[in-house]
Amino acid sequence: MDWIVAPDPNGRALRDVLPSMLSALDVEGFTDTIGIPPCRTALVLLIDGLGHELLREHAADAPFLSSLQSAPPLTAGFPTTTVTSITSLATGRCAGEHGLVGYTFAEPGGGLLHPLSWTVRSAPGGAGDERGDMIEKWPPEQVQPHATVLERAAAAGVDVRTAVPGHFEGTGLTRASMRGAAFRGVRELGDLAAELLAAAQSRGPALCYGYHGGVDLLGHIHGPGSIQWRMQLRQIDAFVQMIAEALPPGAVLGVVADHGMVDLDPAEAIDADADPALSDGVRLIGGEVRVRQVYARPGARDDVLAAWRDTIGAAGAVMTGEQAIDEGYFGPVSAQMRPRIGDVLAIMRSGGVIRSVHEPGESALRGHHGSLTAAEQLVPVLVTGG
């Protein structure tokens, strides 16, 4: 399938960014596969949702960012969704290793874990759409048991910080992915700028991760390329230029994204709940609208696979979880993580979504991601300073 862009296993993926930055800081045990200039302090700013193709298509709205777009793009990983990508960035591992394998995925109690809120939705026939807090029942440190790159860096003597929205503090996703960093809660771009520049002016070695979510938010609501999205892109372009111009000697800024985004019409969606063929033999439907992970009832996998293939047709690629693993989409998959991956996966092409009544907000959005198209998979790596 020539439309699928598989994750890069050879050192030019999002998971390779922090190890490359630490290598540039001359921290032992890390390798630079990205091409980061030697530095004393390193800043990584993740602009949620700003894919490589979107930046290229809207270069006029982001002249400074576009001026840095010289290196080949990175692959985000799979699925191309925030919880998976950010955890890959922070751990240096693929989804099959760190275990946050999608927007929602099966948890041991029989429900779907929603990692952004760290809540669970029960299976059909259970407690309906009620969501229960899973922080104590399935602690983030068990769900994602590996040491993060941030923990390893801190143990090596690096001043490690995160500059992210204040309400991220103590969340399940933060505990799973960002362990080891000093938390710096921010409210607006001014706070984010101040924290990044404070880290840049450290005596070093120092590493600071910053996050901006406005581009992704407006892309979801209005669609990537909408006037609202373009105005937000112009704002973040000016912000990055301001940071770059204030960098002291010896500081490097790397700008990346967690995924791209495609503009879709919700009216053209496939409704998983309305078609009996897509529910027969199905225990759970996880993932998100661009890549569904389907968990079959015992003995029903092959029938589920056939039904989903017949229904989806040319709108996407439907395969078993084993095939997706064999293709390397999740990277190495441990026995501990395998039950979290669907028995059947539906990976949609450029024009398709599979929505569910259990996700009314998500299903109504204009912009989406999660699949393996170039627009979703390829992300920029923009480096300045040194």
From TrEMBL:
Entries under InterPro entries matching the protein: Alkaline_phosphatase_core_sf, Phosphodiest/P_Trfase
Highest taxon of source: Bacteria
Molecular function, one GO term: hydrolase activity
Pfam families, sorted: Phosphodiest (PF01663)
Protein name: Type I phosphodiesterase / nucleotide pyrophosphatase
Signal peptide: none
